[in-house]
Design goal:
alpha/beta; 9-stranded mixed beta sheet; 6-stranded antiparallel beta sheet; globular
Length: 476
């Protein structure tokens, strides 16, 4: 069984209590991001694209504990960034385990072997290792030669030491379904407890924008991958969510089911979209217009999203209904999903390919050095500044200047919030207080810097160099 009975009972009891209380919106898993720093620069990720002073910041253990207690979830996932880069990650995990929270520490495993001694095996702790497929696919996806071998060795060592270990795989357009299926078998052979899988989400600032599949493309892709399953494969996910990926059932997005908390606060509306932040979880629930999000809303940013952070909580919630119970039991008993058409479609030999071809996207127009003044232009300019992945400088009417990163804005209240540099104070500023706005920092999502890294990678690979690694120089 990929999930211990005690964990299933804890989650089931929690969900039933929420339903008995009549709560329509409740959290299931907290996505706790203690930092954004990472030791990789993956082509499909836009999480690390922040100014250096933002990447240097991190949550304290006490802040992490408060967030967990505030929303009351039974399960905590710790993504990032790379959480093993946090100097007190072991204290954070120890504190959550002491609170009997089921912790999934998400890691690329580059530091796992050297950090493993900081942790103790427990039913409450699982290392969720990011693995994007077989060796060639994984290394190209994370832009690091040899990354697969390092992660696989760390998985085996953690399993041997008695830790719970799962894998987390992101699948992109153009995937070789046979390769992914072979990868599943490799992970089972490595001794992992279970696997998690999800389609790539099209972060608008991800360097590679060419390999995110649409909704129908995702369904076809997952039908080929997940039909005709090997009986040894174990998935650490709701079976109804896997059916959703295969196009066998519809689910509505429940973005509040997996809320995200980071150095900026509670992220609106979900782990993937950044439409601002709130200071409390209750404020997140009360102030977010949830009708604007999810596939049914028509929001273009949600049109192709089928990720677990939006839909697995939906699947779990549906499980605890009369129809859902029978659907879940059926999915568990008849989990191979025999499909001759899918088998024929995936059987044709294909040339080696990567899950993500490293190919730079077009550069974003950079606003660095630009300035905006005038009361009529400032509201639109501040909206641009909110989307800008670099520092700005606000010049106030009283002559004061504030330099930092704008992480939140509320057009209704005509207010922005800025994380000041270098002090790190969160400062709320009214639009009416601003005399001028200047884009003084480099846009960290500017594709031109990524294009330079891609060119360097190709040159070094062509020269036969081994152990190539691309890590952006983002911490100044």
């Amino acid at each position: 069984m990929p999930v211990p009975a005690s964990q299933m009972w804890t989650v089931a009891s929690y969900v039933l209590k929420q339903k008995l209380k009549g709560r329509k919106r409740y959290p299931l898993v907290l996505m706790l991001e203690p930092l954004y720093r990472c030791n990789l620069a993956c082509a499909g990720c836009g999480k690390i694209q922040y100014p250096g002073h933002v990447l240097k910041r991190e949550l304290t253990p006490e802040e992490c504990f408060r967030a967990v207690e505030e929303c009351g979830v039974p399960t905590v996932a710790i993504p990032g960034g790379e959480p093993l880069m946090h100097p007190l990650i072991h204290e954070i995990v120890r504190g959550l385990v002491a609170r009997r929270k089921y912790v999934y520490l998400c890691t690329n495993a580059l530091l796992l072997k050297e950090k493993l001694h900081l942790f103790q095996p427990s039913k409450y702790l699982t290392f969720s290792v990011h693995m994007d497929g077989q060796k060639e696919h994984h290394d190209l996806s994370v832009c690091k030669e040899g990354g697969y071998e390092i992660a696989l060795a760390a998985i085996r060592q953690a399993v041997q030491a008695g830790f719970r270990v799962t894998t987390n795989t992101t699948v992109f357009q153009g995937v070789d379904s046979q390769s992914v299926r072979a990868f599943f078998t490799e992970m089972m052979d490595a001794g992992v407890e279970g696997m998690m899988i999800s389609p790539g989400y099209s972060y608008d600032k991800a360097p590679d924008q060419q390999h995110f599949a649409g909704r129908e493309g995702n369904r076809s892709m997952f039908r080929a991958i997940l039909s005709n399953r090997d009986s040894r494969w174990r998935f650490n996910m709701s079976p109804l969510f896997l059916e959703f990926l295969m196009g066998k059932r519809d689910l509505e997005c429940t973005p509040w089911g997996m809320p995200a908390y980071s150095i900026f606060g509670w992220q609106k509306p979900c782990y993937l979209l950044q439409d601002g932040y709130t200071d409390t979880f209750q404020e997140l629930l009360d102030s977010t217009d949830w009708s604007k999000y999810g596939f049914e809303s028509g929001n273009p940013k949600c049109a192709n999203c089928m990720l677990h952070s939006g839909y697995e909580a939906s699947a779990v919630d549906y499980t605890f209904s009369w129809k859902g119970v029978f659907a879940t039991v059926r999915a568990m008993l008849f989990s191979q999903y025999r499909d001759p058409d899918a088998l024929r479609g995936s059987a044709a030999p294909k040339p080696p390919a990567s899950l993500v071809q490293i190919d730079a996207s077009a550069p974003r127009p950079s606003l660095q050095g630009g300035g905006i003044a005038g009361a009529d232009r400032l509201p639109a300019g501040l909206e641009q500044a909110f989307d800008y992945r670099g520092d700005v400088t606000l010049t106030l009417h009283n002559g004061e200047s504030i330099e930092g990163y704008i992480f939140d804005r509320d057009p209704a209240a005509s207010t922005v919030r800025i994380l000041s540099k270098p002090a790190g104070a969160r400062i709320a500023v009214k639009y009416a207080e601003v005399a001028a706005l200047s884009f003084t920092g480099r846009d960290m999502a500017d594709g031109r810097s990524w294009e330079a890294w891609v060119k360097k990678y190709a040159e070094r690979k062509a020269a036969g160099e081994k152990n190539i690694e691309l890590v952006p120089e983002t911490i100044d």
